[in-house]
Amino acid sequence: MRHGKKFNHLGRKSAHRKAMLANMACSLIEHKRINTTTAKAKALKQFVEPLITKSKEDTTHNRRIVMSRLRQKEAVAELFRDVAAKVGDRPGGYTRIIKLGNRLGDNADMAMIELVDYNELYNAGKPAKKTTRRSRRGGGKKAAPAVPPVETKATNEEE
Q1: What is the domain extent for residue 79?
Q2: For the segment 36-65, what is each residue's pLDDT rounded down to a tens digit?
Q3: Is residue 155 part of a domain?
């Protein structure tokens, strides 16, 4: 019986699947977005998001856990150095999957998976988060001093 075994095997044995996901995760960390099939993108999302969460707290233990999953020293270093600093305040949802249509050769569903904070096109529309402090003292906004209108002299063209 296969009760509770819901992850996609992707048509591969476990060692091949783990190696493929580790390589795809390293490519995603290095290039910030990759094109792949939709099924692989969804599997990669489940694989890489816990690693990004681990990278937010830079401890030796977390580095060893991530290193055991990724197996590339440069990718782990970039994850803890650059990516963790960029996603530090995000409470999850570090990746985005955008469907691209079907591949010409075999009609497979293709998708682009990318790190959310690195796409300037989507982030440009959102204004920076405003932080407001409200006081109970009733300081409120003060009315601006009234500025007298600027007087302009009428010039006669005939003079």
Answers
A1: 14-124
A2: 999 999 999 999 999 999 999 999 999 999
A3: no
